[in-house]
Each structure stands twice: as C-alpha cells, then as structure tokens.
Specification:
- Helices cover 17% and strands 28% of the residues.
- It has helices at 25-34, 144-153, 180-192, 257-262, 275-285, and strands spanning 10-13, 39-43, 65-71, 74-81, 87-89, 91-92, 103-105, 107-109, 131-135, 158-162, 175-178, 198-208, 210-212, 219-221, 244-249, 251-254, 269-272.
- The mean pLDDT is 90.
Amino acid sequence: MSLNALLLYLVTMSVGGAGAYTETSDAMAARLVSERGVYITFSQGNDGGQGLQTSGNPAISSGAMAIASIDNSHTPQSYLSTPDGEKIFYSAGANSGGWHSTVNSIIVVNDPQATANDGCNGPTKSVAGAVVLYAYNIGDLCNSAVRCDKAAAAGATGCLLYNVGAISGSSAIPSGSISLTNGQHIIAITTENLSAMFTFTNKVALAPVVISSLLLIYLKSTAGTPSQFSSLGLTGDLLFKPQISGIGGYVYSTISSFAATTQKLSTAYASYSGTSMACPYVAGYV
C-alpha cells in the first residue's frame, strides 16, 4: 500500500541520539519517506552547550526538517507576595517543592551583608516559625540542601536562597530560589520593618523568561532567542541544520500525575524545555 493511500502527510518525532552523518538507517528512511511527499519534522537535540556540529540523529537526515528551540517570552512560575502585594517569583526546591498552601510569615535575613558561606553552619539568628533568607555566593562551600535542612532543624518553616538558579533545598520544609534583585528587595523591606508579613502561595502567575549573567550580576530576557541547550549544525555532511525553530524553552504543559507527585506539584502542569517541546509545536503549524 502506498503512503498516499494511507493519507500520510506528516511524520514527527521528538527522539534522537548522537550522529553526525546521514548514512544511518533511520536518517535514510526519513529521506525516502520525504521523497514520497511526506513532511518530516525531527527535534534537533539538546546538546548546544557542547558547541558546533551537535545535531542529533535522525534530525540530520537530508529529508527532515530539524527543529531547534527558542525561548518563550513568559512562563507560569510560583510566587510570594510582599506586604504591599508585589509579586516575587521563585523557583521551587527539588527536594520538597515550594509552598503547597497559602502561608503568611515573616522573613528572617540570616546575613544582610551576604558574606560567603551564608548559612553553611546553620542560622545565626532565631528562625523558629519563620522563613529564612540566605545569600548564595560563587565559591560557597555548602549547597542549598545543607543550609535549608539546618534551617529546618532550627525550626524554620521555609527556606529561600537568592542570587542563585535552581536549587535542591530542604527535604523537610518548603524551599525556593530567587534573583539577586529580589533578594535585595526583601532585605530592604525587612530592614525597615522586621515584622513585615509576606504571603507564600501555591499559585502561579506569568513571569518573564530571563537568565542570569555568567557572574550572576544581572538578568536579561531571552524571549525569542535560541535556547542555550538547542543543538547547533552543521552536520558531518555539511548540511545546514537546523532549518526552523519553534518555542521550546519554558513551555507550560501537562505532565503525568506520577511526575507531578514526584516533583511535589499541586497540579499536573509544569514548565519544561527542550527541542522535544519545539518539534510538535512546529509540526502542528505545518
């Protein structure tokens, strides 16, 4: 039976592996199918951090459209609120997640001077019944789990680190990470009023997609730009890959209930990134 008889118009796959040359069986199969008039879209791969010529197989096929990823402009993210209602977005810790209900709490800044290894030896102030805020510095000798678990042992109900990306956090209390700017904002609020009440929620709101600079000095928007992970061409056969991009960085989508439970999420939705997110986006458009 011919492909046309099967009414096959498009084949899309978000799978692949290493391979610089197009003589592999799956790459050749993609070429033969495309020659019958069928559109082929394959995810380009997520090895862009390794440099040039990192295109994945079978996206390297001459008959396939290799799909790269660009970053979304906004993505839903958990947040806490300042006393005046301003949202501060945070990334939930991997070990115990973020806050699973609405909680009002003061924030104790462990070291307003943000010296090195803040919290590595445990809180230097009373944190019982409060959320503690630690500073992260490049070269610190302990990780987030050490600091936040020691905070939990001291009676803290939550743990925040600022000036850092994703963290593991505590396995016992809600944890999260925030930007340098937001950390300094919280310090300014608590310096003026030690009893300032913050609201932690399990809700999400749309946050701009930004990344930290190399030295964590500032944040910059990456909306509409190639995702850092997206694999680059050329192929070993000097084919130009990828040919087209789709939104694959910070895509909010459904996940399995098992994945939600494992990640300690309150709903089966999450923000994921990868050319495997971009590929079906482009396939749907085609």
